[in-house]
């Protein structure tokens, strides 16, 4: 099945755009109508008939589905498997879905792309590199132990204050502003974090804004005083931990080589409980060394965490821990295992949330957001300790992407324009991908670093994203079943 | 429908009418710092 799906995907990518994506997972036959975002769970006959219609014509409408020509073709292909009466009784239902724009919906989004792209964007989020220094020496760190290919540095209050002023001044009518205290390790510059939060709280009253602060930490310096402050002021806290002790300690040691797990885990458990198990993520990275990463997520669950995320490592292909194409089958298998485990936990009343399987089919982002992507370089900027702007944290240190600074503002608007111009229709690989409205073109930094262009897409990352979307939707199907059986 | 269960009837087309306010969270600010996951964000208007 895996190979078949991969092959189908490749075939589709070479040809006409996806309108329908069908797959089978965990006993569910799933049909994703790509352009409407509608998800249909069907029986085997429904699955086969929709596949047949898709092969016959990519532009099916309520009329063509019920045409004599279609009926004949469906019967010809499937009458040895299903009764004629049953097959013909299904077509009006499918035609109804098509009429409602829920099946074989045409792509009307591309015609909106001009309108979406020409909207004036505002800066709404900053990633403040509060410390280019770290007390751990994680082996995969894209910041190179916090230094980002540069010197060790801590952001001063003055630089941070100017960054917040810049954000307020460039945020237009946008009320909710996001600031992530990032590093390196931001707790190594804790006083400045506190002072900037206090400054932000003063300014938000003056300008009718609301700051949503986030802090990403390795936990080494976490203590009761910091915890209390985080719970009072931070909308979200991201806690870095890779999973099982041996996995975490192999990649996240102190500079002396000693593992960090034993020191950090009790602090993270305490913090998560003190936040009532919401508004935080325990976040890990998996590498080639722990391709059985579903066990690390399960380990998080066993430790009592309810909000978690484990992402594939970003590393040069020469790094021994980097994910390779040949690892994909095992990674897909792990995502399947994880999805099934989550359903099981949900049934037992011990459910938890895995960031990359979150999908909100009814209340997710609008199409404008899905067409705009992650916002790096336009709505979202990273700020270095000395006040330079980059499109995002992953470009920091690459001088080609230095966009300006807190004193002069954006001095290279052409960089912002290059990022603004990237979307799922400007990237050939995305145009024909069924998952394009879920990742919105993927990570720009990965595209640039792995494929050499912002208008590319990182192939291995795309394969994993497609799998995650499939699993996320399957979980929704299973939970819908669970809801019905409990009703 | 006997053979089909539709999980969501809200289509992406419908979101064009009221969407685009820009108040939603930036994806990398949550728990994703090395991959892009926009589809799992929540619309601020529907919170």
TrEMBL record, chain B:
Give the InterPro entries listed for this entry. Answer: Six-Cys_pep_SCIFF (IPR023975)
What is the name listed in the Swiss-Prot or TrEMBL entry for this protein?
Answer: Six-cysteine peptide SCIFF
Organism of this sequence: Sellimonas intestinalis
């Amino acid at each position: 099945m895996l190979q078949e799906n991969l092959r189908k995907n490749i075939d589709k990518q070479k040809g006409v755009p996806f309108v329908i994506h069908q797959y089978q997972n965990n006993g569910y036959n799933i049909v994703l109508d790509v352009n409407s975002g509608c998800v249909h769970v069907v029986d085997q006959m429904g699955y086969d008939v929709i596949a047949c219609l898709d092969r016959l014509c990519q532009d099916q409408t309520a009329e063509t589905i019920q045409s004599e020509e279609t009926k004949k073709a469906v019967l010809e292909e499937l009458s040895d498997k299903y009764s004629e009466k049953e097959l013909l009784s299904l077509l009006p239902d499918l035609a109804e879905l098509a009429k409602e724009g829920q099946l074989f919906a045409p792509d009307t989004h591309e015609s909106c792309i001009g309108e979406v792209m020409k909207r004036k964007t505002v800066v709404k989020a900053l990633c403040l590199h509060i410390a280019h220094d770290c007390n751990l020496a994680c082996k995969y760190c894209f910041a190179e132990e916090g230094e980002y290919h540069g010197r060790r540095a801590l952001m001063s209050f003055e630089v941070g204050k100017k960054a917040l002023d810049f954000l307020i001044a460039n945020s237009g009518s946008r009320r909710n502003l996001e600031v992530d205290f990032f590093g390196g390790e931001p707790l190594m510059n804790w006083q400045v974090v506190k002072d900037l939060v206090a400054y932000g709280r003063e300014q938000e009253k003056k300008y009718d804004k609301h700051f949503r602060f986030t802090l990403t930490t390795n936990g080494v310096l976490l203590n009761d005083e910091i915890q209390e402050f985080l719970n009072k002021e931070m909308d979200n806290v991201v806690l870095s931990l890779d999973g099982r002790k041996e996995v975490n300690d192999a990649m996240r040691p102190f500079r002396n080589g000693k593992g960090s797990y034993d020191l950090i885990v009790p602090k993270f458990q305490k913090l998560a409980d003190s936040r009532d198990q919401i508004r935080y993520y325990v976040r890990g990275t998996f590498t080639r060394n722990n391709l059985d990463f579903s066990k690390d997520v399960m380990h998080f669950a066993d430790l009592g965490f309810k909000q978690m995320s484990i992402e594939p490592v970003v590393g040069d292909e020469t790094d021994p821990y980097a994910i390779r194409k040949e690892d994909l089958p095992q990674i897909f298998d792990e995502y399947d295992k994880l999805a099934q485990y989550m359903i099981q936990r949900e049934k037992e009343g011990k459910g938890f949330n895995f960031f990359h399987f979150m999908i909100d089919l009814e209340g997710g982002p609008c199409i404008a957001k899905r067409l705009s992507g992650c916002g790096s370089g336009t709505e979202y900027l990273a700020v270095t300790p000395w006040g330079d702007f980059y499109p995002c944290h992953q470009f920091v240190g690459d001088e080609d992407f230095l966009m300006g600074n807190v004193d002069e503002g954006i001095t290279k608007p052409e960089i912002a324009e290059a990022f603004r111009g990237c979307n799922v229709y400007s990237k050939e690989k995305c145009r024909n991908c069924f998952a394009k409205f879920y990742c919105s073109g993927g990570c720009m930094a990965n595209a640039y670093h792995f494929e050499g262009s912002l208008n590319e897409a990182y192939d291995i990352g795309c394969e994993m994203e497609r799998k995650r979307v499939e699993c996320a939707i399957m979980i929704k199907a299973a939970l819908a079943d669970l809801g019905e059986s409990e009703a | 429908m006997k053979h089909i269960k539709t999980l969501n009837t809200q289509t992406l087309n419908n979101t064009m009418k009221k969407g685009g306010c820009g108040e939603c969270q930036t994806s990398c600010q949550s728990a994703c710092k090395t991959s892009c996951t926009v589809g799992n964000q929540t619309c601020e208007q529907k919170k």
